[in-house]
Amino acid sequence: MSSQDHPVSSFKDKIKSSWPYTLTVAIIGLMSLWIRTYPSDTVFLSDGSVRYTANDAWFHMRTLRVLLENYPHRMFFDPMTNYPNGSYIHFGPLFDQMMAITSLILGMGHPISHLVDTVGAYFPAVLGALTVIPVYYIGKYIGGHKTGILAAIVIAFAPGHFLLHSMIGSTDHHIAESLFSTFFMMFFMLALISAKEKKLRFEDVFNKNLKVLKEPFIYSVLAGVMYSAYQLCWPGGSLFLLIVLVYAVFQCILDNFQNESSDYLGFTGIITCLVSTILILPFVHPDMGFSLYYYSWFHVITAIGAMAGFAALSLIQRESKRKKMKTYYYPLIILGAGILGFIFIKVLSPSLYSLIINAPSTIFGIQQGGPSTIGEASSMFRIGDKIVLSEAYKYFTPTGFLASLLGIVILAANLFRKPKPQEVLLLIWCLLILFAIYGQNRFAYYYSINISILSAYLGGLLLDKVKWNELDQKFKNTVKLPEDIPKAFKFIKVQQIFAVLAIVLFLIYPVYGSAILYTKISNGTPDQWVEACDWLRSNTPDPGMNYNAVYEAPKNGEMFQYPDTAYGVMSWWDYGHYIETIGHRMPNANPFQAGIGGRRVSINETNQPGAATFFTAPSEEEASAVLEAIDPRPDKAGARYIMSDARMATVMFSAIPKWTLDTEGYEQAYWIGNQYQSIPTARYFNTMKAKLHIFDGNGLKHYRMVYETEAYQSNEVAYKQVYNYFYGGKLPEVDTGSVKIFEYVKGANITGTASPNETVKISTTILTDKGRTFEYTQSTTTDSQGRYEFTVPYSTEGPIAGQTQFDTAPSGPYVLSYGDTTKEIKVSEETVLKGEEIKV
């Protein structure tokens, strides 16, 4: 009898033969988890606090806590950011739901805060380690067990974005995207292989031939589930739908030229997209219309459209074969049908047509203007007009990246023989992700998956050359007990040893060595920002919002109704999540790139009010006008506090004017030493950014420093040296507070009289919370009647209850001087806040 006559025995044999590989993958997964949790002491601090590694991670923990507080209701609209508009949350719900369910189970329905923090910190590391499973199976079905094991090893240590996003404390949905998209490709690939091997036809569906349909159907359903899971982690997940659609076109054309049916592909695609449509539909927000980055009708229509596309590709092929058309007619018919489909969509819904047409450029195109300054949205291969590979080598290692390119070339060459569907799918998948990282390096964590599989594919081909499968079979036949292992070594050939050494040296060791270096990278959240936001939370008035509430989004065209006590905090968008999640205050701009203002297309546009417009404002008056314009309500400024750090004022500043499209004149080339160097110009020193941070707000009428953190070494000293040398300044050439907080106030109006055309000066010494002092001064000239007026922002009498509890203040009264006259003036906090007059 054959083994098929004894299914139980066959199953036992299958388990017995696969357990060594299962154990090996499990060990690789544990190694992957170890390296991702190695720097745990940078996340779990000695004081009991948990320090997440990036701004999006902090925000995910905010959405997680809101979800747990209101379970099962999640936050879709957040009024605590992008003040005074609020922001729709484009994060998918699944990542937070998985963490919430885990926390609820471990906490027996009532998880304590530290448990939630722990789950959130470890979650990305666990998902990263689990990714070895689908990578192993994809490698296995491309080149056998050896390729699968090698692929699992490479992805376990793959450096770059993939490792960074899956390190402990990197609580972001990106690693969930990688895991579920890879599971999607794995199950889609298994469905294709199964359906192809069983020679599935649509007649099997009509005849209910379960023997043929069962396995491909299950794999297709699982592919649909995993695609839905991927898209429910990130709405922009339509990228992988595009990948399988492009693959389907190529595969159907290849099948047609090889006189083979594509029914297996049509069946797989239809079932996958149908399941996805059903699972995504409950999460659609009809009020979002057609949107790529929010769950909208776009996601349902594209899934239905993809389902129709798979059906059409197969049915057109069947009809062309039935009518015995020439093979080259088929791609022409597909092209014509595609053009007609786009024309139909354009007539039916121009907005949907525009979104579909522009989606590829959104994903694959090079960003211009302000968006080009977003780290994850910049090209991996271009710096300016130059093509560079240094970033790819840095994130993937030189051998890993070059191995992927060689793997792509070999897969492409295989198209000229009779390639397997999984090989064609892998080729299209790798090529499109490679194009994607040309446009935006955020997709680099996807390409790490491709590199792992392609590297393993090359390694597998090398092992095939040295007849590794023969060696493997001899080992299996010889080794029955542990004492048989030494006898099996006689089968090993020299070329096999060299092949293994080459794989270790060129494919495994580089990624492992690079991964070890990544574990030594310091936590991405600056201590000084945590300190400053903690101060903000404890020493500024409560804005009157329920921090953990789920708020309804305003109706179209309406603004969210904030309480009168609400106010914004102006800073650059990078720091918005810190302000909200650590400081519990409402930033005007955030890492969703909301609240930046400026221009997007042309310098001729109106410069919209926002963070970029405020910090590049060339005068205090224009900066204040921006704050007033941000909030459309009369007598209500868009921000009460401004947070600045040394990096924003120096190395990061060049990114700010790019959002206004007015970048000229902030720096100039100057010959220093033996080379030209860019140094800041007068235009830079006149910006509000420089006035606040470089000059400590000296001379400003409505802005006062209320707190600063410790000084850290930065480029601030160099900027002050330039100002002193080129512009006759007398700034102390020292680093000051790394993060500074300023308050926007009405200011006390000090008025008096002196001789006509007399120079009048007012000054005081400001003592900061860190014990640093600096001079605050203003000067003016009296008019023809001898009148003068100053508006000063500092109170000499200290804070009052219910208002800012500032630690930085004058060390004594203001000193007013003109001619031989000096007068001391005390200013109360009420006078500063109400803008009242003090007559001298």
Automatic annotation (TrEMBL):
Give the residue range of the signal peptide: none
Which Pfam families does its entry note?
A: AglB_core-like, AglB_L1, STT3
Q: Which cofactor does it need?
A: Mg(2+); Mn(2+)
Domain (AglB-like core): residue spans on this chain: 528-649
Q: Which reaction does it catalyse?
A: an archaeal dolichyl phosphooligosaccharide + [protein]-L-asparagine = an archaeal dolichyl phosphate + a glycoprotein with the oligosaccharide chain attached by N-beta-D-glycosyl linkage to a protein L-asparagine
Q: Gene3D superfamilies annotated for this entry?
A: 2.60.40.3390, 3.40.50.12610
What's in the keyword line of the UniProt record?
Answer: Glycosyltransferase, Magnesium, Manganese, Membrane, Metal-binding, Transferase, Transmembrane, Transmembrane helix
Q: What is its main location?
A: membrane
Q: Where is the chain membrane-spanning?
A: 21-39, 119-137, 149-168, 174-195, 238-257, 264-284, 296-316, 328-348, 395-416, 423-439, 445-463, 497-518
Example GO molecular function: oligosaccharyl transferase activity
Which residue ranges does the record assign to the Archaeal glycosylation protein B peripheral domain?
747-838
Q: How does it sit in the membrane?
A: Multi-pass membrane protein
Family in the record = Belongs to the STT3 family.
The protein's location, in the record's own words, is: Cell membrane
This protein is called what?
Answer: dolichyl-phosphooligosaccharide-protein glycotransferase
Q: What is its EC number?
A: 2.4.99.21
Q: In which pathway does it act?
A: Protein modification; protein glycosylation
Source organism, top-level taxon = Archaea
**PANTHER family on file:** DOLICHYL-DIPHOSPHOOLIGOSACCHARIDE--PROTEIN GLYCOSYLTRANSFERASE SUBUNIT, DOLICHYL-DIPHOSPHOOLIGOSACCHARIDE--PROTEIN GLYCOSYLTRANSFERASE SUBUNIT STT3B
- Does the record's keyword annotation contain Transferase? yes
Q: What cellular-component terms does GO give this entry?
A: plasma membrane
Q: What InterPro entries is this protein classified in?
A: AglB-like_core, AglB_P1, Oligo_trans_STT3, OlisacTrfase_arch, STT3_N
Residue ranges of every copy of the Oligosaccharyl transferase STT3 N-terminal domain listed in the record: 37-462
